[in-house]
Amino acid sequence: MTNGYSNKILRVDLTNRKTKEETISDEFCRKYIGGSGFGIKVLLDEVPADCDPLGPDNKVIFSIGPFENTGAIMGGKHNVSCKSPLTGILAESDCGGTWGSMMKRTGYDMIILEGRADKPCYLWITDDNVEIRDASHLWGMDTIECDAAVVAETHEKAVVSTVGPAAEKGVLFCGIFNDGPESRAAGRTGCGTVMASKNVKAIAVLGTKKTEVYDKASLMASVKEVTKEVLVKGAGLSKFGTGGGMIGGEKVGNIPIKNWSLGNFAGAEKISGQAESEQFLIKQYRCYSCVIGCGRHSQVKEGKYASIPGGAPEYETLGLLGSNLLIDDLAAIHWANELCNRYGIDTMTAGGVIGFAMECYEKGFITKEDTGVDLKWGDAEAMIEMIKQIGEKRGFGGEVLAAGVKRAAEIVGQGSEEFAVHVKGLDPACHDPRGFVSIGTGYATSNRGACHLQALSHIMEKEASMPEIGYDEPLDRFVQEGKGEMVAKMQHIMTMCDSLKLCKFAISRGVYPRVCADWMKYITGWDYSVDEFLLTGERLFNMKRLFNLRCGITAADDNLPPRFASWKRGTGGAPDSLPDLSIQLPEYYAFRDWDTKTGAPSLKKLQELGIAEYYFG
């Protein structure tokens, strides 16, 4: 057994209601690391690219990383991978909380769901037992209700991942939720919809197995030293949560305002983490092994938006259900967040598609007769009604918006594609490539659509340095030259974070690539270097690209929506800026050695990365 790993996979054949354990080698662990690396390896080898995402040939892969349960900080996440029903390409979603840590204690590095159960079921996984249990009585429950019910049926210390009723109904952007009212979620790209399509309502885990570490003393000495820096640089996150970024984000032109059309939003302070902390905060919430504690355990105690104690809206939710819709009522956003969590839908895509609908309504493309409500900017009640329609798959929300913004624009037509903000079918989080131009290439080339996390390049234009890849100080956020290459390098690092299951807040606050390489050496006993760290990230990123190429993606799909490519915000912190992909993308492709027409990596590049068997010629 490799230190840091269990070297075991649990494969669940839902069609035949059978489970089996498989062994993975040390070489497999070192080459593919864990998390999304394990996920893409299974997808490339076992999932037909032309399969129906909601059919039995798709697979749902839960995977963790080698840092989990070792004493390394900020490494307590887990990954979910499949083919996306929303985009038709790679789906992968990262989730915090405590589920991943408990999964590792059961002795598995990966759980693969395949086939389709003939009736609703849930999994109950412990140290030495796996049960496929009936879930007919759980079907229809919201995520918080289901979590409590499964805990009551299994064990008080069990940790549950579950889907909500929206996933059961086929809403295409549903997540997989754990930690009950805290609602930690693998939220993006529709992984929950795929899990529900297999008739799996939940997975409960409870384990006691320990993770072996090669050199515990050296690991803990490094962790102790690094933690000092993380605590200093993460102080703002700890104090105000991710929502603390709303005020600064509005000033520099980074948050979405009125479906990404405006440059200023006077209500940013009203819906910020600072306001949250003052009005509704009960205590901090920490994911497993976290020293920052950016989660907010909060409650709106009074009024029509009174909520249960639980997870408060994060930065992305505040932006997309708040400023993006011109809503500055923090209590209403709290309630909208709880509704989304209970239904099991992604708050980001919900906010993005509702913003699109509000603009359609403003332009007269849709009417109250279509929507059943005056879908006006700034109207919190209209926003909440749309969430209910989406979550219950009824009315305009259920028939049009539940399919995501790309398909919604195809249904509405009338030129609405011009303000349907997405890349490859996935709408962006609250980061604007007009405010930080490198985000443009990051969105255009991200393997799951418009995702800032797959490069996190804007931190290099804001505050961070990364000497390991040649950047000793932050870059000018409006300069186009050099950004294509920088994005590619950052994608390698972030792909490794997604495979190690290291929180992205760690990488810019002290857990740098050199630290990660040291921790890999201390945990596994491998002679591990920064060069191998970066090469492995490049390998895994290219593997994800190869899966998408099989799904039909080409270089032509590496683009931006018109609102980002040609619409200037006019005011605010980035009034005249536009990302210029004509400068950034050729540089990016040249650095990657990808063909400019097909978008495919060269055979030479794949040989260098040790994955020539996947060559897409």
- The tally of helices reads 25
Overall mean confidence score, pLDDT: 97
The low-confidence runs, each spanning 5 or more residues with pLDDT under 50, are none
Radius of gyration: 22 Å
Distance between the termini: 37 Å
- Which term fits the overall shape? globular
Strand order of the largest sheet: 2-1-6-3-4-5
- The percentage helix is 25-40%
Profile the largest sheet: 6 strands, mixed
Structural class category: alpha+beta
Strand % is 5-15%
The strand count comes to: 15
Structure report:
The longest helix has 21 residues. A hairpin with a 2-residue loop joins strand 7 and strand 8. It contains 25 helices and 15 strands. Helix content is 39%, strand content 12%. The model has no long low-confidence stretch (mean pLDDT 97). The protein has 617 residues and is α+β, with helices and mostly antiparallel strands. Helix 12 packs parallel to helix 15 and helix 13 runs parallel beside helix 17. It has a 6-stranded mixed β-sheet. It has a 6-stranded mixed β-sheet with strand order 8-7-12-9-10-11.
Layout of strands and helices, then pairs:
Layout: E1 8-13, E2 18-23, H1 26-32, H2 35-46, E3 60-63, E4 78-83, E5 90-95, H3 99-105, E6 110-114, E7 121-126, E8 129-134, H4 143-153, E9 159-162, H5 165-169, E10 176-178, E11 184-186, H6 191-197, E12 200-205, H7 216-233, H8 235-240, H9 245-252, H10 273-279, E13 281-285, E14 295-298, E15 310-311, H11 315-320, H12 330-343, H13 347-362, H14 368-371, H15 380-392, H16 395-399, H17 405-412, H18 438-445, H19 483-500, H20 504-507, H21 513-524, H22 530-550, H23 562-565, H24 581-592, H25 603-609
Parallel strand pairs: 1-6, 7-12
Antiparallel strand pairs: 1-2, 3-4, 3-6, 4-5, 7-8, 9-10, 9-12, 10-11, 13-14, 14-15
Helix pairs in contact: 2-19, 2-22, 7-21, 12-15, 13-17, 18-19, 19-22, 19-24, 21-22
